[in-house]
Amino acid sequence: HLLIIDFGSQVTQLIARRVRESGVYCEIHPYNKVDSAFLDEYKPKAIILSGGPSSVYWKDAPLPDPKVFDLGVPIFGICYGQQAMVHMLGGKIEGGTSREFGRAFIEKVSDDPLFEDMFVGGDKEEVWMSHGDHVAEMAPGFGVVARSPGAPFAVISDPERGFYGTQFHPEVVHTVHGRQLLRNFTHNVAGFKGDWTMAAYRAEAIEKIRAQVGDKRVICGLSGGVDSSVAAVLIHEAIGDQLTCVYVDHGLMRLGESEQVVNLFRDHYNIPLVDVDASELFLGKLEGVSDPEKKRKIIGGLFIDVFDAEATKIGGADFLAQGTLYPDVIESVSAIGGPSVTIKSHHNVGGLPERMNMKLVEPLRELFKDEVRALGRELGLPEPFIGRHPFPGPGLAIRIPGEITREKADTLRKADAIYIEEIKKAGLYDEIWQAFSVLLPVNTVGVMGDLRTYEAVLALRAVTSTDGMTADYYPYPHDFLGRVATRIINEVKGVNRVVYDITSKPPGTIEWE
Ligand code: XMP
């Protein structure tokens, strides 16, 4: 494998994406975890040093274990990674008098295996710079192979050792041929064949799960979402009926969702599944509660109670399986970044492993969402399951501002089903990251069949996004919105007005609570 050592750049994930897109499997590990023992165990075939916000001259600057340079494997340093490499190998880094951000053009100084299919039809390449410090004096063995007016050491090369560095970021799309550059490194310099596929990942993941779990028991909470579904099917393939799934229906799922999950897992995959209808319990405890954070805490707490009770009933388990994805991991380990405030308490099964004394199995930890979907396809999960929009753990609770009642949940379920049906009919479902309805605690006056009505407002939401961190509202055609509104008002009792939410994130969040 290829090893990416992370120094805290905002775009380290993109390096991994680009590398895997070229058919080479890689993993990202934080610099402080990559010590001598780790390297002995991991045996990387090549290494990429990521960018980062630090300066090599800071006290306690993050630096790679010096052993990486003695492994005899090719190394590619990006921005801060380049500086760290040059600094440790005997060169000099300087603070820039001016920081350089954005578009720049580099020109080739000499040919290099790194430049295959680049600088075609001209001697310039458009790249994306983002740095404060830069190389001032080269380390022995290196030569300059490309430069720009602002970056005399834009690309450096030590072909003997296979060490390369760029001042710019090849992993971002603004570096027009960045993907090609990284591919040239992995294929031409490091000798990867580019034959890694999802099928290979599946086989490897299954081996890893078997090695980790042995003959112990695993329990997995299903939410109906893609991540936990894929994790469960993969783990079942690895260890069969040592896995038990638990599905908790809190009464705040979408229309028909519980049946779909139960059918798929129990009947289609034959995976042992405990399904618990805990709707009375959840809705009871939520009665009269309208504070969003209180709702979230109540649901998170009850979820753990119910899961714990069910786990005990089936005799417990040594491992808890979770569909944790790579972006979740990165967010929680971005040790170098500053502290971030809690906007919302996300509900997951955090707290359970300690309470039940379980270890975690997280077979999707290295994957991005679209890779999880590809793995799901590889495992034969039905397409509608794979392409599903994300659905939050607290479910409809955070789409009913104010007090929650079973009646309101039913109304919302009906309206939302119509909305989603119309989106699918219009062929827009896959273009949208997430679409849903929100039932507002506001009644307005209307007129239907010559009679006055005084009923609730329903808000429609749809956003595009790549990771849920930022989002844009979806620009529906007006006739589409009109059609949905008419159907909902005609078919759903209790709603007499429909509005469309045109707030982006930021400043809004995707969910209303
Ligand atoms: P926000 O509303 O914070 O949502 O912009 C970003 C993404 O996260 C989902 N979300 C959750 N997912 N448990 C989850 O599993 C939660 O408590 C939760 N809250 C929000 C939201 O649907 C969107 O995709």
UniProtKB/TrEMBL annotation:
Summary of the function given for this chain in its UniProt record: Catalyzes the synthesis of GMP from XMP.
Assembly: Homodimer.
Protein name per the record: GMP synthase [glutamine-hydrolyzing]
Lineage: Bacteria, Pseudomonadati, Pseudomonadota, Alphaproteobacteria, Hyphomonadales
Positions annotated as active site in the UniProt record: 79, 169, 171
Record-listed E.C. numbers: 6.3.5.2
UniProt keyword Cell cycle present: no
Keyword Nucleotide-binding: yes
NCBIfam families reported for this sequence: guaA_Cterm (TIGR00884), guaA_Nterm (TIGR00888), PRK00074.1 (NF000848)
Pfam families the UniProt entry points to: GATase, GMP_synt_C, NAD_synthase
PANTHER family with a match to the protein in the record: GMP SYNTHASE [GLUTAMINE-HYDROLYZING] (PTHR11922:SF2), GMP SYNTHASE-RELATED (PTHR11922)
Source organism per UniProt: Ponticaulis profundi
Organism superkingdom: Bacteria
Residues of the signal peptide: none
Main EC class the enzyme belongs to: ligase
HAMAP family to which the protein is assigned, alphabetical: GMP_synthase
Matches recorded under InterPro entries: Class_I_gatase-like (IPR029062), GATASE (IPR017926), GMP_synth_C (IPR001674), GMP_synth_GATase (IPR004739), GMP_synthase (IPR022955), GMPS_ATP_PPase_dom (IPR025777), NAD/GMP_synthase (IPR022310), Rossmann-like_a/b/a_fold (IPR014729)
GO molecular function, a single term: GMP synthase (glutamine-hydrolyzing) activity
Keywords assigned: ATP-binding, Glutamine amidotransferase, GMP biosynthesis, Ligase, Nucleotide-binding, Purine biosynthesis
Gene that produces this protein: guaA
Pathway membership, UniProt: Purine metabolism; GMP biosynthesis; GMP from XMP (L-Gln route): step 1/1
Residues noted as binding ATP in the record, renumbered to the chain: 223-229
Domain GMPS ATP-PPase positions: 196-388
Catalytic activity: XMP + L-glutamine + ATP + H2O = GMP + L-glutamate + AMP + diphosphate + 2 H(+)
